[in-house]
Design goal:
about 325 residues; Penicillin V Acylase, Chain A; six-stranded antiparallel β-sheet; 8 helices; 17 strands; globular
Length: about 325
Amino acid sequence: MSSKRKLILWLLAALCLMIIAVPLWNPARSLLSFRKVDDHPLYTMHLYNNDSFARYIEDSETTVQISTLPQTTPAWACTVFNAAEPDGARILGRNFDWNHSPAMLLFNHPKEGYDSVAMVDISYLGFDLENPSFLERTQALDAGHIPFDGMNEAGLAVGMNAISHAEAMLDSGNPTIDTLAPIRLILDQAATVEEALLILRNYNINFEGQTPIHYLIADASGESVIIEYINNEMRILKPKNPGWQVSTNFLLSERSPEQWPLACSRYRHAAETLGGNDGRLDADAAMSLLEGVSQGSTRWSILYHMQSGKFDLVMGRDYADILHFELR
């Protein structure tokens, strides 16, 4: 066999191997990035070129089942706030309160859309508090479907709180998605609050059999809104005080603004702190605010710095040990 023919056959074999290997490379690369970084336990992982969520949406006709938050009632005590740092840069602060469970800090790098980071309670993927085997880690490839809060490279951030009730928007012309899917959609596709609202108007939200939640969405310009779904209507609540906004575990749209501080002591504490500082807190003061409204059920506290892409994370109320990360 001539050397030229051998070279051609070698190149064809290499090309076939590449065609076979490419679909496997990104999941393998993602799993190789899986790391345990805290004994809570907290894991980190980078999800590369994952288009499974986009395919869920694209293949849907009327209903998309992505994620499920069981309709249980542990001690709800989540707090989310949007504020500014002294130099005007925007921050979103977030306490997540739930049952003690493993968590993941997921860096998502989609084929199309914005890079983002999100916190995920991976007990919903079958993880427990024990160290997972490599085979068990493959479940983490679905972590992108269930973000509990997050920030993208455009400077948009979002958090959610459990509430007493929510009723889905019902439009026969729109696909129906589960309660955490809106967070993934806007992290992937929205750079501003306005863009996030345009996206959400194109989907129904399925709250049936799941924990009802509302969402606080903020962007790097300082805009923020709280989104609630009541009586099949998407209600948009803008900040009462320009420059900052707070949500906890009650429906703001069912009360007057004067009643909000009376509905929740954590809301009152956060609102008084932000109002007394014109909505501006440095990183230390913002984390102290999260500590001040934390409860025994607080699983994580996180500050998203929307301009810089940096974020500060505390697991299990260990505020003496702040973990620092960067999206960009």
